[in-house]
Amino acid sequence: MDKLLQIFPNLTAEQLKQFELLQGLYSEWNAKINLISRKDMDSFFERHVLHSLGIACVIKFKEGAKVLDVGTGGGFPGIPLAILFPETDFYLIDSIGKKIKVVQEISSELGLKNVTSSHRRAENFTIKVDFVVSRAVTKMEIFVPWIKKNIRSTHKHDFKNGILYLKGGDLSEELASFTRAKEFSLQAYFSAPFFETKKVVYLPL
Q1: Most buried residue, 32, 59, 120, 165, by most Cβ within 10 Å?
Q2: Which of 92, 95, 100 is nearest to 68 (CA)?
Q3: Is the CB of residue 112 less than 8 Å from the CB of residue 82?
């Protein structure tokens, strides 16, 4: 939480409470449905919450923006981002129904009014959004055709609408055909060893 406040010092009391509740809620649900490995639960805040918020180090979503989280799993990066940007609308989708059930329950318990979650594949999602976020669901060449139809043409951010993808490792081969992609190293924002190879890949569409 100290690291969170260092990077995002203007959090409200409500946002702080929501972030503080996350680990307990996920521990409770993880005992029922295996969403997160034991090793990752031991480093939950770093590997899931702060990692998700790496996107917020790169871009600040504006009021009224729409963001789609594809393959959200247990709600990452969507739920931490929805807490941070309460005036932005987030759509969280996953092809596994039991994971979406957890996302819906946790969103409700946190009182998140800006989250809509549904059990569906990206190919079947029809709403137009400003940005698509995700945590390494698949390679970019597969991912882009899934969601390209969902990016709306009018822009309200300094960044042109597109993809913000949490990825790790050497991406030179994967991104070779995406010449407009830009990589942001999360080590610039977080000092923990976990973030040494973690990046946000921005691809305008």
Answers
A1: 165
A2: 92
A3: yes
Upper half-sphere CA count for residue 70 (Cβ side, 13 Å): 30
pTM higher than 0.70, yes or no?
yes
How many angstroms separate the Cα of 2 from the Cα of each of 8, 24, 38, 64, 117? 10, 18, 23, 29, 30
DSSP character at residue 47: I
DSSP 58-104: H--PPTT-EEEEET-TTTTTHHHHHHH-TTSEEEEEES-HHHHHHHH
Q: How far apart are CA 200 and CA 53, in angstroms?
A: 10
pLDDT tens, residue by residue, 158-190: 999 999 999 999 999 999 999 999 999 999 999
Query: 133: part of which helix (H) or strand (E)?
Result: strand 131-135
